[in-house]
Amino acid sequence: MDINELHAMAEQEQLRRKPHRIRYCTSAGCVSAGAIAVKDGLKAAVKDGKLDNEIEISSVGCMGLCARGPLVKVEPSEIFYENVTAEQAASVVSTCHGGATDAKVSDLEHPFWKLQQPIVLENRGRINPERIEEYVQVGGYQSLHKALTDMTPAEVVEEMKKSGLRGRGGGGYPTGLKWETVAKMPPGQKYVICNADEGDPGAFMDRSILESDPHRVLEGMAIAGYAVGATHGFVYTRAEYPLAIKHLQKAIKQAKKFEFLGSQIFGSGFDFKVDIRIGAGAFVCGEETALMHSIQGARGNPRPRPPYPAASGLWDCPTLINNVESFANVAPIVRNGGDWYASIGTEDSKGTKVFALTGKITNTGLIEVPMGTTLRQIVEEMGDGVPDGGVVKAVQTGGPSGGCVPADLLDTPVEYKSLLKLGAIMGSGGMIVMDEGTKMVEIARFYMEFCREETCGKCVPCRTGTVQLYELLDKISKGQGTAKDVEQLEKLSYMVKEMSLCGLGQTAPNPILSTLDYFKQEYLDLLQSPADLNGNKIEATANAPSA
Amino acid sequence: MSVVTLKIDGVDVAIAAGSSVMQAAQEASVEIPRLCYLEGLSTVGSCRLCVVEIAGINKLLPACTTEVREGMDVTTQSPKLQDYRRMVLELLFGEGNHVCAICVANGNCELQDMAIAVGMDHSRFPYRFPDRKADLSHTQFGIDHNRCILCTRCVRVCDEIEGAHVWDVSQRGEFCHITSGLDQPWGDVDACTACGKCVDACPTGAIFRKNDTTGEKVGDREKLEFLVKARENREWVR
Questions:
Q1: Do A321 and A251 sit in the same domain of this protein?
Q2: Cross-chain CB nearest to B169 (options A299, A452, A491)
Q3: Domain check: are B190 and B158 in the same one?
Q4: Do residues B184 and B216 share a domain?
Q5: What is the CATH number of the domain that holds A364?
Q6: CA-closest candidate to residue A382, choices A7, A4, A110
Q7: Peptide bond preceding A370: is omega within 30 degrees of 0, i.e. cis?
Q8: Which of A234, A306, A410, B216 suits a disulfide with B212, CB 3.0-4.6 Å?
Q9: In this structure, what CATH number is given to the domain that contains residue B159?
Q10: Looking at the structure, do residues A173 and A217 belong to the same domain, yes or no?
Q11: Tens-digit pLDDT profile for residues A468-484
């Protein structure tokens, strides 16, 4: 494969296309809303109308507005239809020839679409994830070609540093710096790992990216391999993501066939292969050292750092480990330059971030916004607020490692620094909206139950501390707690946070600490003898424990 | 080989580069509480008792897995560290079924020693009273999971010094336990050489000799050091 062949491949795909295309979403959200029946309806309508030569029915990855699935998009008119039913399928097909349909047209001027800036999700609704030709047609693998033929590995690293991209898995470590560290380790066996072990409840960014645009991740990994001097990559994902695994496997096979992976890619001296490793769904295996143990076939236990994976990782070799979303940002950065990427976002946080918007919100779905967008814009404008006129109480970011931001702080911009200051974290992108009916003690208890089940059990504070924290929360939420229990809850939270071995334990108490920060009165109201924040007793009749 | 100098609780120490803070503390005759650490075995940093404060680093770091650096200023005792260590001990006592009065290791138990060292006289957390088993299928030894604190010394001593790898950890979180062989009764594990190193390595009375009764188990920790020295340095001295 050389550049001419790449262009020819894109051209051929363009020529192959029929005048009209109807794309239906086949990601998990729309499928569970009935997308398969819609697909059958669309195909039947085309067949019945003998329109096979004019209209192509094609699947497409996640289009984002999961709340209104199944979504169908008609090209080239670029009209989106929401909540399409199998009965409406025929009329949607008829619109290609001036017909009318009663299917609801999506308002593309709505802030949900307008405030987005798709970079990672730029191919959303444009390509069939199972066909490499469509990825090439929208410019795929050109960044890899550019890196391999026009740039030295050091130049690629330089662009990544300039971009200001920070790790999208949640830690926020500068990606370029990580690449540089691995690149500067002595030559020899090195590895690239894509961490696709997404485990936060309510988060589905990585799954959507892998399901909808798997080649993009492979391209990013290959560029990373070239930049740091690695020839072997692993994607570590979980068995709960069967569709992502299927699409990824297909993508690797296709990329090998067209020689975007393999030896001497684009006629250069660079070889790169990618293998998939499937985890059994332990949350702790998303922690990088545990993840590497798991790839090596060992028990998925974390180990103390340093040494960091960049110095000694997989089989003690220097290893670059980045999240799916980080790798998905690589191709556009190489294509447009680091300065372009750095021009988006804020001083502290560059670029865009993908969020999975869930919970008590009208427009659940997947969004990509520039850093610096406020939580209020996301929740109230893009998400249309709580359904049925409810009121937002808090927004939870970062899953079990994150914290709750109360409604009066919703004007906080989405940035690593500003979220950390509030006791929440950027996290990998889960964003759960809670309404005024949500009991915050219950939320803390839910997350602690999760951590208690998911702790690996290696270090004492996390193994036993999470159990005791859960028991305390359980006692308080049942109305059996005392003021002393709340005090102990807080003390033990800080101990688990500071004493645990890995990130899981160090962040596990965050949901407790942030709810104690902003909603302490809710804890106190549940006590045997409720008190206000100053310790004055409240008459039990007025505030009887509700749980 | 280069040497670095550092301060431990104000005491100046010089030690070979690459050593751990724990080794440097030993050199300075400073006692740091520990349970999973055993000289001669690899370090895992899992009991978290040996955490220390290091000037300029805002995290608490375990002395056993942290490498010494030139000019380090280490504090091993502070009100916060003492409080946290005590909590670790309380969590450990609450997690298993530790009844000193009827334990083979009573009076010679490192868990007991540590509780005394950090001043833990009672637990502020409720006891969990887990339902745990004992395995007496081995002809010479027994393992009582009620007394296990999951320090994994037995796992490491068997794997790294005896080379048999009889032990490993099963399950996750609060259900973690030590297993022998392929989750078989200990007596059925062919790999076990009945060397007894796990008995000596065990800090509590979890692994014991069958003819020992209350307070009779005396772990011979020096034997392990002797073996390591003999293998690594060819010095056959005790």
A1: yes
A2: A299
A3: yes
A4: yes
A5: 3.10.20.600
A6: A110
A7: no
A8: B216
A9: 3.30.70.20
A10: yes
A11: 999 999 999 999 999 99
Q: Are residues B73 and B98 in the same domain?
A: no
Quick check: B176 and A492 CB within 8 A?
no
**Residue A278 corresponds to which amino acid?**
I
Report how far apart, in Å, the C-alpha atoms of B52 and of each of B17, B74, B80, B235 are.
Answer: 19, 7, 10, 33
Domain boundary pick from B77, B102, B124: B77
Burial of B178 (0-12, 13-18, 19+ CB in 10 A): buried
Q: Is B46 in contact with A501 (Cβ distance < 8 A)?
A: yes
- DSSP state letters, B191-223: T-----HHHHH-SSSSEEETT--TT-----HHH
Supply B2's token pair.
Answer: 């280069």
A425 and A468 both lie in a single domain? no
The number of CA neighbours under 13 Å toward the Cβ of A196 is 34
Q: Residue B238 falls within a domain, yes or no?
A: no
Under-70 pLDDT residues of chain A: 539-547
Q: Most A CBs within 10 Å: which of B174, B175, B183, as the mutation test of the A interface?
A: B174
Q: Which residue has the tokens 């931001």?
A: A405
Q: How far apart are CA A280 and CA A454, in angstroms?
A: 12
Can you spell out the DSSP letters for A237-299?
A: EETT-HHHHHHHHHHHHHHHHTTSSBSSGGGSS--BEEEEEEE---GGGGSHHHHHHHHTTS-
What pLDDT, on the 0 to 100 scale, is given for residue A546?
A: 47
CATH at A230? 3.40.50.11540
Residue of B nearest to A472 (CA): B125
Residue of A455, A495, A499 lying closest to B173 (CB–CB): A455
Flag if B84 and A500 touch (Cβ within 8 Å).
Answer: no
| pLDDT tens profile A306-345 | 899 999 999 999 999 999 999 999 999 999 999 999 999 9
Question: Residue A78: which domain range?
Answer: 16-107
Query: Do A461 and B91 make contact, defined as CB atoms within 8 angstroms?
Result: yes
Total residue count of chain A as it appears in this document: 547
Contact status of A453 with chain B (Cβ, < 8 Å):
yes
Asked whether the beta carbons of residue B95 and residue A466 sit closer than 8 angstroms, the reply is no
For residue B41, which amino acid is it?
L
Asked if B172 and A466 come within 8 Å (Cβ–Cβ), the reply is no
Instruction: Tell me which amino acid residue A320 is.
Output: L
Contact between residue A507 and residue A497 where contact means Cβ atoms under 8 Å apart: yes
β-strands A319-323, A191-196 pairing: parallel
Same domain, B140 and B63: no
A-B contacts at Cβ under 8 angstroms: 87
Q: Are residues A174 and A322 in the same domain?
A: yes
Choose the final residue of a domain: B45, B77, B109.
Answer: B77
Range of the domain at B195: 83-233
The full length of chain B comes to 238
Q: How far is CA A58 from the centre of its chain?
A: 25
- Report yes or no: A463 at the B interface, CB cutoff 8 Å: yes
Under 8 Å CB-to-CB from A143, ≥6 apart: which residues? Answer: A219, A223, A330, A331, A332, A334, A335
Are residues B47 and A460, on separate chains, in Cβ contact within 8 Å? Answer: yes
Q: How far apart are CA B179 and CA B185, in angstroms?
A: 8
Beta carbons of A282 and B91 less than 8 Å apart: no
Residue B82 contacts A where some CB pair is shorter than 8 Å? no
Q: Are residues A233 and A196 in the same domain?
A: yes
- Averaged over successive runs of 10 residues, the pLDDT of chain B (238 residues) comes to 94 96 95 93 95 96 96 96 97 96 94 95 95 96 97 95 94 96 96 93 95 85 73 71
Instruction: Nearest by CB to A304, from B65, B149, B174: name it.
Output: B65
Chain B contacts of A488, Cβ < 8 Å?
124-125
What ipTM, to 2 d.p.? 0.94
Residue A2: inside a domain: no
> Hey, is the C-beta of A452 within 8 angstroms of any chain B C-beta?
yes
Asked whether residue A448 is assigned to any structural domain, the reply reads yes
Asked if A312 is an interface residue toward chain B (Cβ–Cβ < 8 A), one would say no
